[in-house]
Design brief:
The complex is a heterodimer of chains A (299) and B (322). Chain A has helices at residues 3-40, 44-49, 62-67, 73-78, 88-119, 125-134, 140-153, 160-168, 172-184, 188-195, 200-211, 213-229, 232-237, 246-256, 264-298. Chain A is mainly α. Classes of the chains: A mainly alpha (299), B mainly alpha (322).
């Protein structure tokens, strides 16, 4: 056997292992999503009798009806539910408002600040920038409790303003990230426009902002995912269903399930309903999300 | 997010930028009309961020420090009690056991997560550039900790959970994953690894792609095995990105809450009562905000110390290789 043949064989054995490993990782990653679906389409009693079946047991739409409040309380309890439901449309709107408004605001304000830090010449610029950066060192836990007290004092508990303001105005990471990107951009076009008499704001919105759209998208998508999945902060500042996001609704729904014999099918239906918007976002922007995450590490 | 690592990198970068700008200023006319009015506009542009920084970052940080010296139950004004909270902290067995539990969780979840994500990234890099596969791997990152916790709570159930059914089918004894003292933290750590692994792997994968292929040519000519090249060439080149990922994951893991709160709720008997869980229960269960602030501050100090230690270690090993 020649040396090249040996190498090629070793090569393909290694590749075989690599594929086997990757398939293993993919199965572990994806299986829980399938299991949510399979359980959500099952009947609770059939489920306890045959918990190992890979397919839905006693196929029924009942769990979704229970969760969405389309079944009567009696029906729900007869099927092993607690009678509690999730007004999905309502919580969905709350989550959309919370995640969208805070993301859009914080990315927009960060872009403005990044422009001031990267393009304008002003006294105190470096001092302000270093001051902003110190915020990167402070973990959430240190500011969350005092922020709760502050929001309470401002009378903003159970309001979108109270939920959004602490995250919608300032993000040290966003400002830093965008400033770095802007410093790396060539300023020739901007300077030409300035010489032609365009105002600073026109240059910012007409030239700099479009050229920064890549990182702006990255920060928006990562910010949106983070806010959509946020649980701790809304848990602190909301107790009223009128503003609570989906994550809280799911946690409340889970708690209302009887502990001795939980309504597994209903819980999984609720979980699926809570996960669907993110899965839809993923279908729409999958490639860009993947690239955004990779990009966020390298920058 | 990219906290300290980026801060350090930025200081270098901003140093460069200032130097560049100083040079630029020397050559252009300092009285150039191009920068007239810059200052006024700059303050307008940073105004929203400045308000956010002052009101929701700086003020709460200082106030948190102040509250840690007070007895404060939210409804009545805080009362200064000096070091009482700190004395209480030193003697609070639940706090120290929480800290122990949290450190155990961080070690398990960060080390396991790092190994799995490095291997996954390397495998991906080696055999496929499919965006679909990379996309599938980050799916768990897109869902909330509440959703992830609820699903695994079901899959790890001791009676009907599929994981135990499979274990029993292979002749094993069922495991009380979330309800036994020994398994509570490892289980929560596994769920956390499941949720975060793909995200970390994609960042490392992106790092791998920036390594030029020519670096490996010399090794290949010498007949070095792929594993050896991975160890001697790839890993050292990846070190900055691995450091970033470890710092991020450690900081996040120290503040774990969502997954614990929907799976074990800190139980059984405090076996998985991680720090953030304990702080939350002190503040919102017993309305002891002063003491909760003291514990938050302690957690902050621990995080700072660990991060500096990690940066030190990183810098030390960097100077070794140079």
């Amino acid at each position: 056997m020649t040396a090249t043949a040996t190498r090629r064989r070793r090569f393909s054995v290694g590749k075989g292992f690599a594929w086997a490993y990757l398939i293993g990782v993919l199965v572990v990653t994806i299986f829980p999503f399938y299991w949510i679906l399979r359980t959500a389409l099952s009947d609770n009693y059939a489920l306890s009798a045959d918990p190992a079946s890979p397919l839905p047991v006693g196929f029924t739409w009942g769990p979704f009806k229970r969760v969405l409040g389309l079944a009567t309380t009696q029906e729900s309890i007869a099927e092993g539910g607690s009678g509690a439901s999730i007004e999905i449309g309502h919580f969905l709107v709350n989550s959309i408002v919370y995640a969208t408004v805070s993301t859009v605001l914080v990315v927009f304000f960060s872009t403005l600040a990044a422009y001031a830090f990267s393009r304008l010449h002003w006294r105190g610029r470096n001092l302000m920038f270093s001051l902003f950066l110190t915020a990167l060192m402070v973990p959430g836990i240190l500011t969350l409790l005092p922020n709760f007290v502050l929001v309470k004092e401002l009378g903003l508990l159970n309001t979108f303003a109270g939920m959004i303001l602490p995250f919608g105005l300032f993000s040290a990471f966003n400002i830093f990230f965008l400033r770095q990107f802007m410093l790396g951009l060539s300023t020739e076009i901007e300077e030409a426009a300035l010489i032609d008499g365009a105002g600073r704001l026109r240059v910012l919105f007409g030239i700099t902002l479009p050229m920064t759209s890549g990182p702006i998208f990255t920060l928006s998508i990562l910010g949106f995912i983070g806010m959509w999945n946020d649980y701790f902060w809304p848990l602190l500042v909301t107790s009223d269903e009128s503003v609570q996001p989906l994550t809280l609704a799911l946690a409340v729904f889970k708690q209302s399930s009887p502990q001795a014999q939980p309504d597994w099918a209903g819980l999984m239906a609720a979980t699926l309903v809570a996960a669907v918007p993110m899965l839809a976002l993923f279908m729409a922007f999958g490639r860009r999300i993947v690239n955004s995450i990779g990009f966020s590490g390298i920058k | 997010m990219a906290v300290l690592e980026t801060t350090a990198r930025d200081q270098r970068a901003s140093g460069e930028a200032t130097r560049r700008r100083k040079n630029a200023r020397r050559t252009t006319n300092p009285y150039s009309p191009a920068h007239r009015g810059d200052a006024k506009l700059a303050w307008v542009l940073i105004a929203p961020a400045l308000v956010g920084f002052a009101v929701f970052a700086a003020y709460p940080t200082l106030r948190g420090i102040y509250l840690s010296f007070t007895d404060f139950a939210v409804l009545s004004p805080p009362e200064w009690i000096g070091l009482d909270n700190y004395r209480q902290l030193l003697g609070d067995e639940v706090f120290w056991s929480s800290l122990g539990v949290t450190v155990y969780f961080v070690l398990l979840s960060v080390s396991l997560g790092l190994v799995v994500s490095v291997v996954t990234a390397a495998v991906l890099h080696r055999i496929t550039s499919s965006t679909v596969i990379r996309g599938l791997i980050i799916l768990p990152f897109l869902i909330s900790g509440v959703v992830a916790g609820t699903v695994w709570w079901w899959m790890l159930d001791s009676q009907l959970g599929i994981v135990n059914i499979v274990i029993k089918a292979f002749g094993g004894d069922g495991i009380q994953f979330l309800t036994s003292r020994d398994w509570a933290i490892p289980s929560v750590a596994l769920i956390n690894v499941w949720k975060q692994m793909g995200y970390t792997a994609i960042i490392i994968f992106a790092g791998l792609q920036t390594i030029p292929a020519t670096i490996y040519e010399a090794g290949r000519v010498d007949g070095a095995s792929e594993l050896r090249m991975f160890r001697t060439l790839t890993l050292p080149l990846l070190r900055p990105i691995l450091a970033l990922v470890v710092v991020l994951n450690v900081i996040n893991a120290f503040q774990v809450f969502d997954i614990v709160s929907v799976t074990t709720k800190g139980g059984p008997a405090n076996a998985s009562n991680v720090l953030q869980m304990y702080i939350y229960s002190k503040a919102f269960g017993q309305f002891d905000f002063g003491y909760a602030a003291t514990m938050s501050l302690a957690l902050f100090v621990i995080l700072i110390a660990i991060t500096f230690l990690q940066m030190r270690l990183l810098r030390a090993s960097e100077s070794d290789t140079n």
